[in-house]
Design goal:
Elements lengths: L10 E5 L14 H6 L4 E7 H4 L9 H7 L7 E7 L21 H14 L6 E4 L14 H18 L4 E3 L5 H4 L6 H12 L7 E5 L6 H13 L7 E6 L8 H16 L10 H11 L6 H4 L7 H24 L4 E5 L14 H6 L5 E4 L2 E5 L1 H13 L2 E7 L7 E8 L5 E6 L12 E6 L6 E4 L8 E3 L2 E6 L4 E4 L12
Parallel strand pairs: 1-2, 1-8, 2-3, 3-4, 4-5, 6-7, 7-8
Antiparallel strand pairs: 9-10, 11-12, 12-13, 13-18, 14-17, 15-18, 16-17
Amino acid sequence: MEREAVPAGIRLGIGRGIGYGLFGEPDAFVPQVRALGGTLVRVYVYWAQVEPEPGRFDWATVDAILDQLDPAAETWFTVCSSSPWATRTPSGFLPSSPAKDDARYAHFVDRLVSRCRGRVEYWQCDNEPSNTGLLWDGTAPEYVEQLAVFARAVREADPAARVVLGGCGYDVLSSPQDSTARQFFDHVVDRARDDYDLFCVNLYGDPHDIPVHVDDVRAMMRRHGYERPVVAGEYNGPTLFEFPEAQTAFEREMTAVFTAPVPGPETEPPDRRTMRALYDRAAELPDTLRMFMEDCPPELSARRDRINCRQIVTRNILALAAGISRTVCWNLAPEIPGYHDRLNLMGFLYGKLALLDYDGTRLTVRRPSADAFALLAARLEGVDHVRRVAVEHRPDLYVFTVERHGRGALEVAWTAGDVFAGEEEAATRVERPWPHAEAHAVDVFGTPVPVERDGGVIALPVSVTPVFLSAESAPGPVSATV
């Protein structure tokens, strides 16, 4: 009997980051993922880590991962072709690039997958290859060629494993049909149809665009006469690109830096000079931009955290309702303990999305988004299916029914509203048919929500903050010790 392209059931996952074991000793992270309710772990592995010199294999990082795997969680490796000796662009980190010798690359992949045989379900060939220059230093045909070598090696070493296409990211999903990024991916989807089992989409931007983005990538495959299951390799928010005024201010500062004459022997890169200019003018910037910066006012930091918590829920629910059965939250924690550099551009754009932080060298500090993820995972435990319920004359009202194996009824509801200021808007009184004996509601922050009952109908206030309505007695506060 032919195996399923993706195992049955729904998994909520968490990604460790892009540099595990590269910048410090590989530490424990799978127990932390499991403590938050994650049932899928994703981690990057680099050619340079595994085969630092031709023919010499170093399994320290790989074995550190394998030693802590939990059989109750699935595992996803993103394998990056980054090497100081084996790839066209010498690198120990990113961007990945084409292998100089396909046979050497195949041997590396074979050794890696064989080492992990039966313990890693998903193998991804690099990530966001259309993001050229940053994540992939090559062309679309070169990625297709390398993916074919990768897929053949994975399937020969572990026939039960699944091959995941490099993620289709925001550069593709937010761009017009004739954009370079879309043309790149269209070529890959056309030519690589037999060399991957799962189409990976990375879901950033406006959460409510997720159904459109998922339909978009399915249509991309159907245009070439086939379709594969879609998984979400990354999601999280908010990001800068959800706020037009913030993006405009950021781009204005970046343009000024890149176009201004540089006096004297300037050695600081433009991205760091851009960040320095932002911090110099922080008081003049819009709040929607300032909230991403370190040491922003506490009220802005708290507002960003609340948006983050809301989007942990909305992004997952929308993805699951669109038929995605694997989602991976980006990301678990900083790469190494105690590292802070406010002039790091990637840290500015994505650093605050981490669920956990270090206390010294121990990964034990839970950010508000970690509690939101844990609450969501607890409510969705045993989930089989999520479906949106159409509410007549209310396109702004999002109501979803959640079917859970062996558990009582669950609905999740929220209203569309301004991402930054939506909590200041009045809640809407929503009525729902509810034939169940019990009715308990709690929001994403764990705050009880009042429920009124009139026979078989209940009413509750709904706002931009997602509410869980359950026929089960409400569980206690969600917490975990890691």
